[in-house]
Specification:
Elements: E1 6-12, E2 19-23, H1 37-45, H2 49-63, H3 70-81, H4 90-99, E3 101-105, E4 110-118, E5 130-140, E6 144-154, E7 160-162, E8 170-171, E9 173-176, E10 179-180, H5 181-190, H6 196-202, E11 208-209, H7 211-219, H8 231-242, E12 246-249, E13 259-261, E14 272-281, E15 287-296, E16 301-308, E17 313-318, E18 330-331, E19 340-346, E20 350-356, E21 362-369, E22 379-382, E23 387-389, E24 392-401, E25 405-413, E26 421-424, E27 445-446, E28 451-453, E29 456-463, E30 467-474, H9 475-480, E31 483-484
Helix pairs in contact: 1-4, 2-4, 3-4, 7-8
Length: 489
């Protein structure tokens, strides 16, 4: 059976003008080099006044439209490298701060791997149309990933329109997140840091502890604790875990497409990858948007949680338990049998089910689907949260086959028992055929989630880890094309 899979004839490409201003430390730009900060500060302070004034004026002209809030950013950077910076005049502080500031193009390398949910604001959309919010993986210099956003409108019919992505970019204000003490214990235990010193800290913390509470308690510990073996390193580990929970709040006047979540915690410092958002409706009717993403620190990966109700204020937390030590968790859009469920991947290749009581601590439930077809023979995994249909949970999957070709497929799970696979596509739904095979990483098509609208499944997807296109297919035709899977055993 030939499926009516249509390309929407629209594309999102990486835009190198989407930049943020970051702290720049010259000594860190060359591996193995030592700090040059003091020498650079001295050179700036010794610069003739006329040159300082001219450079300050040029900075204002050249960067004002790219960074309307640049002055407080560079002033803050000046204070980070020169404690007396607040005493400098405006021009000198601006030039000194700019010397330790650099632009970072969040998608200078690539834009890919979108997820999609119904936008919380449907005002003015019109009959037969649906406004959607997309999360995007933006990859910049050093292959560091951030989470950016966009919007689009679906309909009427099989029409998809990306909205203009506004500039300049807006960065979030980062605030401390709260830790339930049981979850803090789990996180420390998972890192092998639930030591006697850590216990001494925890027992003096309030029920919802924050990083500042941890610092306060550590500062008040009796000096004898520091005499224990490796105590300082162990206390630093507790501090590091405490700071990994945070809230990110964007300006109220920023558009969704201006917002970008950049790494803020140590365990994600080398990237926040492949966010999978889902509109979650709890049993009491409460609606929120939950996302998982892969945090990468340069050595290891972990799945982390993002929760928001409005895509302006985000609560970002660690997840614990064996499923959180892998990538690609995808949350179900509602409870099943009273439990929170998620799809994850075990052994690097098998789609599995995980369960949780509180959405923070996750346990393994059961394997669901292992790759067996040639186009998925290397490995498989989910491609976003399950989509509820009358016939079962529709799960978009990815499979890796010969020549490391990433293709998209689909399986259907039982609504009441998602460990039961009812049906699957025998051939790929989407594959990297010419011209949709070239890119930063060739021969890859990949998505982090699709959406249903008026009987049509829409799948925004990345091509070659470089750019994004959109495909659609009628839901009933897709389900009819799937082959039944015999019950195990």
């Amino acid at each position: 059976m030939t499926l009516d899979v249509r390309d929407a004839s629209v594309e999102l490409r990486p835009d190198p003008s989407r930049v943020v201003a970051d702290l720049f430390l010259p000594g860190e730009s060359t591996p193995g080099s030592s700090s040059r900060g003091e020498q650079v500060v001295a050179r700036v302070l010794a610069t003739p006044r006329a040159d300082i004034d001219a450079t300050a004026a040029l900075l204002g002209l050249d960067f004002a439209t790219r960074h309307p809030g640049l002055e407080p950013v560079v002033r803050a950077n000046a204070a980070k490298v020169y404690p007396a910076a607040p005493d400098l005049d405006d021009a000198l502080a601006l030039v000194l701060g700019a010397t330790f500031t650099a632009e970072y193009a969040i998608e200078g390398a690539a834009l890919c791997n979108p997820s999609v949910v119904a936008h919380p604001d449907q005002s003015g959309v019109g009959e037969g149309r649906l406004r959607v919010a997309l999360s995007l993986r933006s990859i910049g210099e050093g292959h560091i990933s951030a989470i950016s956003f966009g919007t689009a409108v679906i309909g009427p019919g099989r029409r998809w329109e990306f909205d203009h992505r506004a500039l300049p970019l807006a960065r979030a204000t980062i605030a401390e997140g709260a830790w339930p003490l049981d979850h803090l214990r789990s996180a420390l235990a998972q890192d092998g840091q639930l030591t006697e010193v850590a216990h001494a800290v925890i027992q003096h913390l309030p029920p919802d502890a924050r990083a500042s509470d941890i610092d306060r308690v550590i500062g008040a510990l009796p000096g004898e604790f520091l005499a224990h073996f490796d105590a300082r390193a162990r206390l630093d580990a507790v501090r590091l875990v405490g700071r990994s929970a945070y809230d990110a709040v964007f300006p109220a006047d920023s558009a969704l497409s201006q917002r970008v979540l950049l790494p803020a915690a140590d365990e994600e410092r080398r990237g926040m990858e492949d966010a999978r958002f889902v509109r979650f409706v709890d049993d009491d009717g409460t609606v929120e948007y939950r996302g998982s993403y892969t945090a990468y620190d340069g050595r290891s990966i972990a799945s982390r949680l993002i929760v928001t109700t409005d895509f302006r204020t985000f609560s970002i937390r660690r997840l614990t338990g064996p499923p959180a030590r892998t990538k690609g968790m995808a949350f179900f859009p509602r409870r099943v049998g009273g439990r929170l469920l998620a799809l994850t991947r075990t052994g690097g290749e098998t789609i599995s089910l995980a369960g949780s009581v509180d959405g923070l601590e996750w346990s393994d439930e059961a394997p669901v689907y292992a790759p067996s077809l040639l186009w998925e023979v290397v490995q498989g995994g989910n491609c976003g949260s399950p989509i509820e249909t009358d016939r079962g949970w529709l799960v978009l999957t990815h499979g890796v086959g010969p020549m490391r070709r990433y293709c998209l497929g689909a399986i259907l799970l039982d609504l009441d028992d998602p460990t039961r696979v009812l049906a699957r596509l025998e051939t790929p739904l989407l594959e990297p055929a010419w011209p949709q095979r070239e890119g930063y990483v060739p021969n890859v098509v990949y998505t982090c989630g699709g959406i249903l609208h008026e009987g049509v499944l829409w799948v925004p997807y990345g091509i070659g880890d470089s750019r994004i296109r959109v495909a659609s297919v009628p839901l009933d035709a897709l389900l009819d094309a799937m082959s039944p899977v015999a019950p195990a055993g």
